[in-house]
Write a structure and sequence with these properties.
disordered C terminus
């Protein structure tokens, strides 16, 4: 890479990261999800805005760039950073599983998770004969994979975005937050497994049936071991006396574990997204010992890699070429209606009142990061086309913004998020007693 190419690359990184942080901060001040600002930064710098209104400037900053690709001269480097951001996002999502599923919450989480997630997924599969799937299909042309992706898109709930919303509203330690995050974790585990099958089928569309079966089996085995055996082994490894790296450089050790999961997944031809999630899930099993290392890696990831990932997601959105207003309107309406109904039904079966039901349904309707990751993984695998990719990203953004707006409105009105709690209030650092009282 020449000095000129490197200079252009640094300019691109400067613009993408700086714009992502700037607009993310603006949206945070507006009490909106930060991720929306980060995506908007990419949209403004991409073909939808800069490329449309100032093509000469866009060509100078992103030479050779197109609507759904980074400039070819820097594709390898930016592609690496994009994928690292995606992996670190999923790693931190997996690490968020610590501290959930308290005994007092299990019954409610079971109802919310099984009905709120299972019913939308089943309804999407049942509606297959009536869906114009050919309008959504990507280059893989695999109907089963596409149908699974549609089912996930209808049912998914965001861990990173809803966590950020709850954190910004200072209610992360309340029972309401535990319930929402507990449901999101269960959904992610189940739906990522389904997405693993979908991508395996899409990638195997041109090879013999026996190899397709082997590919799917390898994916399922990897996922099952990552959820059951690997966390126990990793916990022992973390505490082994001979593990010098864990003692000398805890953050470096966490990164090595993440890369080891990814290397094994690559050898088995399993998506690296799932490897990263399982690595974070495994580290969460020893959260007390690894807390400082995980926090350090999370801080750096959210400072550089993850904002860059979401900015590139926005850059890839070419609303002038791959945007369908009718597709967005229909999918947004149907997906939200099914999800809100199902989550509300689950909340009622769990014994919550109507106001509690609305709050829980709206919160779990936020698709956020996982919705965007779903779109990215499915699009890269050729399962969906550019128009449906844009639709899924915009649906994730809109539902996340709606959830943030509603929860902020409820708190501003002084209404309790759960009727069994006192009215939720902003909790300043150090007010642990008040936090415990609200979370009771």
């Amino acid at each position: 890479m020449s000095n000129a190419d490197f200079g252009t690359l640094t300019l691109q990184l400067f613009l993408l990261i700086a714009a992502a942080h700037l607009l993310g901060h603006v949206f945070t001040r507006l009490r909106q999800p930060r991720v929306i600002g980060e995506i908007l930064a990419g949209v403004l710098l991409g073909p939808s805005t800069l490329g449309h209104f100032a093509p000469a400037v866009a060509a100078a900053v992103f030479p050779g760039g197109t609507g759904n690709a980074i400039a070819p001269a820097h594709e390898v480097v930016l592609g690496f950073l994009y994928n690292m951001g995606l992996m670190l996002l999923m790693f931190t999502s997996g690490a968020e599983t610590k501290g959930l599923f308290q005994r007092s919450d299990r019954r409610e989480i079971a109802w919310l998770g099984s009905v709120g997630t299972g019913l939308p997924f089943v309804l999407a599969l049942a509606a297959a004969p009536f869906l114009p799937l050919y309008l959504l299909a990507g280059t893989a042309r695999n109907r089963v994979s596409l149908l699974l992706v549609v089912g996930i898109a209808v049912a998914v709930t965001s861990i990173p975005v809803i966590s950020r919303i709850l954190h910004d509203l200072k209610i992360l330690h309340t029972r309401f937050a535990r319930l929402v995050l507990g449901v999101a974790v269960l959904e992610d585990i189940a739906l990522w497994a389904v997405l693993a099958i979908a991508t395996a089928l899409a990638a195997s569309s041109t090879i013999p049936q026996a190899e397709i079966v082997q590919h799917v089996v390898a994916t399922l085995v990897y996922f099952a071991l990552g959820l059951t055996v690997a966390p126990r082994l990793l916990k022992r490894l973390n505490r082994a006396r001979w593990n010098i790296l864990a003692k000398a450089s805890p953050v470096g050790y966490v990164v090595v574990v993440l890369l080891a999961y990814a290397a094994v997944a690559a050898a088995l031809d399993v998506s690296l997204v799932f490897a990263a999630f399982l690595a974070g899930f495994g580290m969460a099993a020893d959260a007390e010992r690894m807390a400082d290392s995980l926090d350090s890696l999370k801080t750096f990831s959210f400072a550089v890699f993850i904002p860059l990932y979401f900015a590139v997601v926005g850059y890839r959105l070419d609303l002038s070429r791959s945007f369908s207003l009718s597709m967005l309107a229909v999918f947004l309406l149907l997906a939200c209606a099914v999800k809100l109904f199902s989550a509300g039904l689950g909340a009622k079966l769990a014994g919550f009142g109507w106001r509690d039901t609305v709050n829980l349904a709206v919160a779990t309707n936020a698709r956020g990061g996982p919705g965007i990751v779903l779109a990215s993984v499915a699009y890269d695998a050729g399962v969906i086309n550019a128009a449906f990719y844009t639709t899924l990203v915009l649906v994730a953004v809109i539902t996340s913004q709606a959830a943030g707006f509603w929860l902020e409105y409820v708190l501003r009105k002084g209404w309790p998020l759960l009727s069994s709690q006192q009215a939720e209030v902003a909790i300043e650092p150090g007010e642990s007693a008040a936090s415990d009282k609200i979370a009771a």
